[in-house]
## 1
Amino acid sequence: MNWLKDHPRFAIFFCLILCACNNATKIDEENTVQNITWSEHIAPIIYKNCTPCHRPGAAGTFDLLNYDDAVRTANKIKFATQTRFMPPWPADNGYSHFVDERTLTEKEIAQIKSWAENKMPRGDSAKEVQAPVFYKGSFFGKPDLVVKMQKPVKIKGNGTDLFLMIKLPYQLLADTFVSYVEFVPGQTKLVHHVNGHLLSYNADRTFNYMSGETILEDAHANFKEAYEKMNITYTDKKEPALPTLMPNVVYYLPGYTPPVYNEDIGGFKIKKDGAFFLKNIHYGPSNADVEDSSYINVFFRKTKPKRPVFETQMGTFGISAIEPKLIVPANEIKTFHTKVTLQSEISILSVNPHMHLLGKTFWAFALGPQNDTIPLIKINKWDFRWQYYYTYLHPVKIPKGSTIHAYGTFDNTDKNPFNPFHPPRQIEQGEGNESMQTTEEMFQFIFTYMPYKIGDENISLKR
Ligand code: HEC
């Protein structure tokens, strides 16, 4: 210590280091051993970030509904959070924020670890937060109408993808306003994606849309024939060639819940006679014969919709071209771009980036007329399994004349663990429904929006 006396500046320096260390130990202590309890620390994390999916009828592989569930699976929980495998949230929350963001802070991850490694104390149960209560069979609550399939889908255990068209007809007492529609998958591990429309029928029709086939192999190009078999159109000369067809009313991907806004935003009218028509429902390969009875929940609203919500898509099948053409050569990592310039002012509500197994990163933003950047979404590590509709906290105003850009990078090398082919082979965007096959590629940026109104930036989109 004599040396320190001779060098006072170093003494100060040492003290700083020691003090810093002391502080660090204090923070660590707070986070470790007996102090971390289920009641005070862990339950709020699990209930907010895990239980929505880890409960009966949801996609998670086991239930996390209470203390006992968490104790039983503590090691798994620790592992899944340490590796950042769970909760799944591909969007970069340093870039843009969304409603119901499910991400854990470093501190929360450390707390779970320490709790799991220290005998998982319950703590003071009086301090415990209430477990969230979910209505069975819906993410939201009791639906006003449940539309079921007339018969279940039979899935063969032959290990191949299955693409179907399914009609779910209904009859109401009167025309009704609808707030939103929720698709509830039966075979949660097999239902891959669903894209469904709404068919509406006039009272003077002469054919019975309630009869006819309800499940058919995807018709690909020959929809006319399929519609005839399903008895939904083309059978009556008095009707137009197609019934009123409202696109994208039913949508589903694993982990997806429909965006739900306040009473002022969204909603539409349905006629008393109609059908949900799943124009493509894609089941992934199954190794056993099983049946699926997915269904649709409809939530009514009392008032006429005030501000309808529109949806558009850029890229594959969309309003803007992909540059260059979507061809990903074997053993290459390649980036594609698509852009669109807006002719009017809009408020974007939610976004849905879409790619398949070769996806690596995704990035979308708008460049305003003054070249100012409006961040939209960034995904640094694409995961095919989690393709949410991300809803912004507030509508994002995009001024007239702005250009929306989206960049998608695809990894067609052997290093991509999701590459469906080894050795890799050239992958392209398929024609029509072929693109829906998971082994083909798509590059889409889908967004919902409404024409901009002053004050939109202040509306909360939280449900
Ligand atoms: C968006 C829905 C969702 C959320 C939120 C979610 N999970 Fe999961 N979880 C799943 C699904 C689906 C699987 C199966 C994934 C697979 O097999 O690829 C899964 C798998 C797991 C597994 C591994 C499977 C097993 O049986 O061992 C663990 C552990 C897990 N989740 C824990 C958690 C924890 C802890 C949280 C919260 C911090 C959480 N999950 C949040 C949907 C979710």
## 2
Amino acid sequence: MTSERHVVVEPSVLYVGTPAYLIATGNPDGTPNLAPASSYWALGRMLVLGIEVDGQTAANLRERPDITVNFPSGDLWRSLVRLSSLTGRDPVPEGKRRRYRFERDKFAAAGLTPQPSELVVPPRVLECRLQFEARVRRTTPGLDGSYLMVEAEVLRVHADPAILDPTGEHIDPTLWNPIVYAFRHFFERGAEVGWLASSPTARHPPVLD
Ligand SMILES: Cc1cc2nc3c(=O)[nH]c(=O)nc-3n(C[C@H](O)[C@H](O)[C@H](O)COP(=O)(O)O)c2cc1C
């Protein structure tokens, strides 16, 4: 029997499925910029975001480290598409000219509402049920110079009460439905298949046999 079950492929992107998020940063004139992104991971209270260097988001967070990271649910996918051809950078950088135009008010362009933050300057996105206020602690240039690895400390988490468990202390993952961005398509997260024994919201330990 052969063990070879795969073929070699050359996908045009390697976005295998991460949450899409909306990152708000502060422009030099005090207005907010808003951008969709998906390069994301978290460990403890630290986020690591992958942000392209030629956008307004990168320029803003290098100068003004306050950010908000807002997680849309499936119903907001059209806002991500509306933002996908907009940059807050004026003039539009050479590398973005083919696909992007400058937009000063990205909240309005996306049909989204700025909501004042409590600890940081940029607003949150009202329509997002899960929002982080965070502060950039370090930016590290990526190997090819086209992106930054942005390490940000989460200072406060805001959640719509509708996604909390009965204690009000935990996000109930069965009620929380982030957009998953995979190979340029948007998905809701699908059915639960299991959980960890360490979950504070699981009703019983996972059954493994
Ligand atoms: C679904 C989606 C995911 C994206 N993911 C990222 C990402 O992870 N990092 C990034 O820098 N740009 C990402 N982009 C592209 C940015 O939104 C784009 O660079 C934009 O110019 C940023 O806006 P700004 O120039 O106002 O900062 C993504 C765009 C979309 C629509």
